[in-house]
Each structure stands twice: as structure tokens, then as C-alpha cells.
């Protein structure tokens, strides 16, 4: 199974989707978005640099493999890593790129997100 994310300011919602994903598979691959991809997609650099975010995800004992997510081409990941299923939060339902494998949607963990944390810490500002 594959799941991916920015994992900027890692929080319980991130952990929750990783736990639920691992419960459904024998081998869990996690893609961590590069700084460049985040800046391209969101218009701002992450608070935590890529090399630190990837180490955080690699340190989680039940995550089997961590890869850099350099673009949004999910089918390329499916083909390269022979992925049987992808897991994402249900906030992606109807918006996730089409792929040839099974999709698992998990309920979004309420009241926690990197955006909420950045807003609370006054870290959410776009570059001009």
C-alpha cells in the first residue's frame, strides 16, 4: 500500500492515516513531498525542510519504505513500486488523480491539520 503527504509539522492526523494504512497491508510505502513540490502546489515552502520531514516518517517503526514524492503522478508510483492500493483521507474523495489500483479512503481526523497548527502558530503566510 502507498500513501503520501507533505507531513509538515507532523501531527496525530498524519499518524492516524499511517496506522490505518498499515492495518490494511503487509508493506507500507510512504511518499513525502519535496520542498519544491509543496512550493509549486501550495505557493509556500514547508516549515520543516524535506530532509527532516522524511527522517520523521522513516523513524516510524511500522513504515516499511519512505520515498520522495517529487510530482503528483500517482500512476507512476503505482507502476514503479507495483502498488496494490493507495490510502488517503476522505477529503480527497472525488479529487484524487485516477490510478489503476484500489483506493482506500479514511475519515479525516477532525480538529487537527498542519494548516490549523500553522495558523495557531502564525506560520501560515504566502511568499510574495
TrEMBL record:
What Pfam families does the entry give? Answer: CTP_transf_like
UniProt keywords (A-Z) are: Nucleotidyltransferase, Transferase
- Where on the tree of life does the source sit, at the highest rank? Bacteria
The reply to whether Transferase figures as a keyword in the UniProt entry is yes
Molecular functions (GO terms): nucleotidyltransferase activity
Name of the protein this chain belongs to: Adenylyltransferase/cytidyltransferase family protein
Residues of the Cytidyltransferase-like domain: 3-117
Record-linked NCBIfam families:
cyt_tran_rel
Species, as recorded: Maribacter arenosus
